[in-house]
Amino acid sequence: MISFELMKRLSLQNESKIVFIVADGLGGLAMKAGGKTELETARTPNLDRLAARSSCGLVDPITPGITPGSGPAHLALFGYDPLEFDLGRGILSTFGIRCFQKTPMNERNVAARMNFATLENGLITDRRAGRVPDREGRRLASLLDKGVGSIDGVKVTVEHEKEYRGALILEARGLSGKILDTDPGLLNKPPITPAALKGLPRAEAEKARKTAAVVKKFVQRAAKILAKEHPANFVLLRGFDKFRPLPQFQEVYKLNPAAVATYPMYRGVARLLGMEVLKTGTTIKDELKTLRENFADHDYFFFHVKKTDSAGEDGDFDAKVRVIEEMDAVIPGVLKLKPDVLMITGDHSTPALLKSHSWHPLPVLVYSKYARRDSVRKFGEGDCAAGCLGRIRATDLMPIAMANALKLAKYGA
Amino acid sequence: MISFELMKRLSLQNESKIVFIVADGLGGLAMKAGGKTELETARTPNLDRLAARSSCGLVDPITPGITPGSGPAHLALFGYDPLEFDLGRGILSTFGIRCFQKTPMNERNVAARMNFATLENGLITDRRAGRVPDREGRRLASLLDKGVGSIDGVKVTVEHEKEYRGALILEARGLSGKILDTDPGLLNKPPITPAALKGLPRAEAEKARKTAAVVKKFVQRAAKILAKEHPANFVLLRGFDKFRPLPQFQEVYKLNPAAVATYPMYRGVARLLGMEVLKTGTTIKDELKTLRENFADHDYFFFHVKKTDSAGEDGDFDAKVRVIEEMDAVIPGVLKLKPDVLMITGDHSTPALLKSHSWHPLPVLVYSKYARRDSVRKFGEGDCAAGCLGRIRATDLMPIAMANALKLAKYGA
Q1: What is the pLDDT of residues A161-208, one digit of tens each?
Q2: Which residues on B lie below 8 Å from A402 (Cβ)?
Q3: Which residues 6+ apart lie within 8 Å of A101 measured at CB?
Q4: CATH code for A4-87+247-404?
Q5: For chain A, what are the domain ranges?
Q6: How many CB pairs under 8 A join A and B?
Q7: Hey, what CATH topology would domain B4-87+246-404 get?
Q8: Hey, are the CB atoms on A370 and B356 less than 8 Å from each other?
Q9: B49, B291 Cβ separation under 8 angstroms
Q10: pTM for the predicted model, two decimal places
């Protein structure tokens, strides 16, 4: 991939518009050898017709064989080297929660994801506190936020995200994000005591020790405040990191980008890169409406479809097929807006067979006046393997979209 | 790509011969959605027959989505990382003009491309001075070369290239190539005053200021000398750079290379890399004759076809088709020479539809006794997408050619 420095030099502003649909966990596998994947099983007349008029191919989120989390996978889709821009989940969650704020975080902030959990006799017996509902989660987070106050001069904020999930945000000079997860990841284990990561350079180790001491006091105070709550009588923390600003879409690509996404984490990544997060509903149809209503105001749209991934994670092949068909149904509405470039892919594969993210490359289609057509007539993993894009990296997609929108100048004379 | 250091270690000398045909701007697009590209439209029985006996694929000049200039695109074809070896057009032009000299430039030289232009009332009204013909351009360049002399101890040379184009070459210790183009790039604008680029480190800035002062005096003296000429009464300068030697083909690949090219710029790149530039005529047939006559004396031949690009730039689809058919006609003559490896591709795409260079990958074929055959039966963008080379980078081509010529040792035990 080319450097951001070069991309800044080459990128051009013009009137053309890019729509980038990302179906989370789109790629799949057949449940039985020789069968069809979720996407190949789905009835997708609109996607197929579009594929026939597009350049198709396969995309590796990171490099072949590597299964990515959603954070790095999305960074790659937006042209950010996921091995370089390695931000903790705590930052992404906080950006998601605060995506409508002017300045979600600053460089004195350290954040972690927080789960409400159940602690019995010193052991974690439920890492999600019975998946407490939204309202209850919000009440508990607010209790902590008000009850903990500041610790050793560090401002402590607790935000609620969804159900049993939230974020812990610390603010002070000289904090470090190099803190161990307190979530043991397994049941009937004690929570891990907040501590600095090992092997840090001395100055960082000092900051991390101080930060860990603050986190330890936070966990103690939280346990006290939640002592009489059940099942959410404890908190687990993971994905600590310190905020550092990333290059912004506006600077790198000279785009005015917007995000249409229903889930906080994806809004968070988008916001982190400078996208305006648009308020939207909960269905793909709602998202189309949001796209339509805001189409005049931006020149790049990240359109995220979440439930392909959720269905895959649940191992529900048929549910994933249905979400794909739901997505297919909005394609004519997207095309009606006449985007100059329409790119459709996923962030990673989530085969129902594996009930988890996987390393399999994803089908992609690039539709534009200047995209070469190929022999692909159906949007699916097998067919796209024969497409004219070949097998490319997720980080190649932004340059390809920009080129097709005639938004990239020539490199060299 | 592997490093030059490793390539030097692995490369071997033997008797086998490589011919590398580069059709400039070869890749194209259909003029109408669903139609055929220039190459797919052309009748190319020889190329098709050859493709059927070759490994085929698609090549990205730089990385997917990036549109290259001819300079970086050719460097990549020759295995030089185009993002690392970023030489100004002034250097390439000067090497083109002086390609038959033993030492075209030295490390005290700074060069720029020079255009004769028309200046009226302080504004540029023709950036090419009515495209003054060759003889007139030569006379005017000679006037400047003799008339300007040296400036502040800097030796000033003006060379004629073709028609309204030439080069300005400065020679002295302590010059800098970090000088702004004086060509405003648009009509009815005043020329830009020679100045140092902004944001240079202090030592370089000092050199650049001195160099810019010399260039400023040159432009003033040139304007005086040309005052009574019309329409070529002014000069515009662009692509300033200081010469620095590049790794030579002989060292890196242990090859004895020769270039058959009709245009100075391509001869320049070839000469810069240490190739012997062979004197040739103006047609592809002339170039075949030159190849035949010199075939015994070299083991690597860069064979450049220019007019595919010119036709594309003119938006003349049919003319580009004709040039491709002309190229097809020389293929039997090339095969008659029995090269051990014959590789055919372009440096970048120049679709007539876009009238400019583009980012689209290029078809490539590699013909050798050791190249796997694939299902491709026609040399075209769509067909080559299904070839066994897949989608590769231009910098991969030299190693592939060397390997097929059995000129690369094993890496590691």
Answers
A1: 999 999 999 999 999 999 999 999 899 999 999 999 999 999 999 999
A2: 65
A3: none
A4: 3.40.720.10
A5: 4-87+247-404, 109-242
A6: 100
A7: Alkaline Phosphatase, subunit A (3.40.720)
A8: no
A9: no
A10: 0.93
